[in-house]
Structures are given as structure tokens and as C-alpha cells.
Amino acid sequence: MSSSSGCGMAALDLDACQPLGDRIWFVAPDPPTQTASGLLFLPESAKEFVSLQGEIVARGQRVHDPLLQPGLRVVVPRFGAVRVGELTDRRVVWAIGEADVKAAVITSSEQ
Q1: Distances (CA, A) of 74 to 4, 11, 32, 104
Q2: How many domains does the chain fold into?
Q3: What stretches of the chain show up as alpha helix (H) in DSSP?
Q4: Domain enclosing residue 84, as ranges
Q5: Is position 16 within any domain?
Q6: pTM value?
Q7: How many Å apart are CA 49 and CA 47, to the nearest integer?
Q8: pLDDT in tens, 18-43
Q9: Does 82 reside within a domain?
Q10: Burial of residue 96 (number of CB atoms within 10 Å: 0-12, 13-18, 19+)
Q11: Per-residue pLDDT averaged across 46-62, rounded?
Q12: Three-state SS for 61?
């Protein structure tokens, strides 16, 4: 196997490597630096916000909920995800089962 792509130790290639079964792969978004009203987040509270949300980047073929598609932001448990690897932009990819997704974060532009 080439060390430059796929599921090896190098950057994770989502075209060459996909989750199995009901697994969902997600990345944590960048922590917010301020609220909509302009208040600044303290670094620790921003980390806590991010650790509870993720953006889906891939899904297994046995994921039943049609809403759970790449690009959707979801609420996930703080603990229990398995580290899959890193994308070329250094974001860490995590895996979780479909049943462990707690909610979808729907923004006003998606309604």
C-alpha cells in the first residue's frame, strides 16, 4: 500500500477509505472565538463547545437516517469516538456509530 494516501499512516484519503456498516466519520469544527453578540470565548470553553459537535465527512452504507450526510453538523458524545486519522489539512477524523449521534444542528440557511 502506498504511504501517501488511503487508510495508512499518511493523510487520510476519503476517496480511497470509507467507513464500514453504520459508522459515521466526522471532524470537529474550529473553535469559535466569539459569540454572535461579540463576546469573546475563553479558550477552555471554546474547546468544550467544539468537542460536542462534529461535521460529517463520510458515512457507511448501513447508516439508515437519510439526514446524516457529509457536510451536516451533528452533536456527538464528548467521549467514545475512535480516531481514524488526519486529512491533508491536519483536521482529525473520528468515527462513531449512527446510534451515538445525538442531534443534527440545523442552521436557518438549511431550513
Answers
A1: 30, 24, 16, 4
A2: 1
A3: 43-51
A4: 23-106
A5: no
A6: 0.76
A7: 5
A8: 999 999 999 987 666 666 677 766 66
A9: yes
A10: buried
A11: 80
A12: coil
33 touches 24 (CB < 8 A) = no
Q: Are 72 and 106 contacting, i.e. CB atoms less than 8 angstroms apart?
A: no
Cell of 53: 459537535
Query: 453504520: which residue's cell?
Result: 22
Nearest by Cα to 29 from 78, 73, 82: 73
Q: Which pLDDT score, from 0 to 100, does residue 44 have?
A: 62
Q: In this predicted structure, what is the pLDDT of residue 97?
A: 96
The CATH number given to whatever domain includes residue 91 is 2.30.33.40
C-alpha cell at 111: 431550513
Show the beta-strand stretches assigned E in 1-111: 23-27, 53-59, 73-75, 82-86, 92-97, 103-105
pLDDT band at 90 (very low <50, low <70, confident <90, very high): confident
| Structural domain contains residue 84 | yes
pLDDT of 1 reads 40
